[in-house]
Design brief:
This protein is α/β, with parallel strands linked by helices and about 290 residues long. It contains 10 helices and 8 strands. The chain is globular and about 50 Å long. The structure holds S-adenosylmethionine (SAM).
Length: about 290
């Protein structure tokens, strides 16, 4: 068994997503590894619809219609579920996904092939803070619940790389959980937060004020910050049921005692995330968009 204590932050992330990756199937059969977005009139019990609505919200904010055959980057792409969704909705764009987890590249590209999208969607192994791309190479980029894995609480390196690879005028959209200010948390909440970070192999969520200041300083324009905490709440409400289904399945298979730590953590983290989500004074979920 690997002891994660000696691993670097990056190795921990890879170890976590390699260990717990397939369990995201309990959250979504298409492997959307993010929260959902609720609009009035939607059925809040239909989790796959909520998850794809988040993809749709991001897609709409990218304004891809203004380009001919745009190149779109999916930074921290997981198994490429968002790119697969968007490639079906927009038949002209080319999507390149980047993840540091090698297993996600292999399995994600297999899913892309099975859906007949391999000509327009490809996943690559790369750090999103050091992309194998030239300056000004993409019309648009998005990062769904992945920028949180970038270094520091201002995510400076991630933001700089995003700016470098976007063409002038190119748009970005990012969705994530953020800390609202960098004041110390009450000790009970700090424990929940630290445990949640540990379970999801995170170091620190971005601080919203520091992150926006960094975006502005780098040169991004027309930055829009939307608090989507209530929009994602209906998908949060699915967490206890998904978690119960996971444990029930593990119990039926007789594997509870044999689960490795990553899989146990992955089942615990969303519940801790729910507690953090209720503490609106300290945490919020934002959709941030802007252009170079
Ligand atoms: C919670 S998952 C989100 C996946 C995907 N965006 C989605 O919504 O389905 C976070 C993703 O970020 C990736 N990631 C974390 N750190 C990264 C880094 N430094 N460079 C590239 N990808 C990274 C992980 O490998 C994982 O694929």
């Amino acid at each position: 068994m690997i002891t994660t204590k000696k691993l670097t932050a990056k190795q921990k992330i890879i170890h976590y997503f390699e260990g717990a990756g397939l369990d995201y199937y309990y959250w979504d059969k298409a492997f959307n590894m993010h929260f959902g977005y609720y609009r009035r009139g939607m059925n809040p019990f239909n989790l796959p619809k909520l998850l794809n609505q988040m993809n749709e919200e991001v897609l709409q904010r990218l304004y891809l219609e203004q380009y001919v055959d745009p190149t779109v980057l999916d930074l921290g792409c997981g198994l490429g579920a968002s790119s697969r969704y968007m490639a079906k909705a927009n038949q002209e764009a080319q999507f390149s996904g980047f993840t540091i987890t090698p297993w996600q590249v292999d399995f994600g590209n297999q899913l892309i092939k099975e859906e007949g999208l391999a000509e327009r969607v490809n996943l690559y192994e790369s750090d999103f803070a050091n992309l194998p791309l030239g300056d000004n190479s993409a019309e648009a980029a998005f990062a769904l619940e992945s920028a949180c894995y970038a270094k520091g609480n201002d995510k400076l390196e991630f933001a700089q790389e995003l700016y470098r690879v976007l063409k002038p005028g190119g748009r970005f959209v990012l969705t994530d959980g953020f800390r609202k200010h960098n004041n110390p948390l009450p000790s009970w909440l700090d424990k929940v937060y630290r445990k949640n970070m540990d379970c999801w192999a995170l170091t620190d969520l971005a601080d919203i004020n520091l992150f926006i200041a960094v975006l502005k300083k780098i040169g991004f324009r027309n930055i829009k910050v939307e608090d989507a905490s209530w929009r994602v709440a209906p998908s949060f409400a699915h967490i206890p049921f998904v978690t119960l289904r996971f444990w029930w399945d593990m119990w039926k298979k007789g594997t509870i005692g044999k689960l490795d730590q990553e899989r146990k953590n992955n089942a615990l983290a969303p519940a801790l995330g729910m507690i953090m989500g209720m503490s609106r004074k300290h945490f919020s979920y934002y959709i941030i968009s802007g252009e170079k």
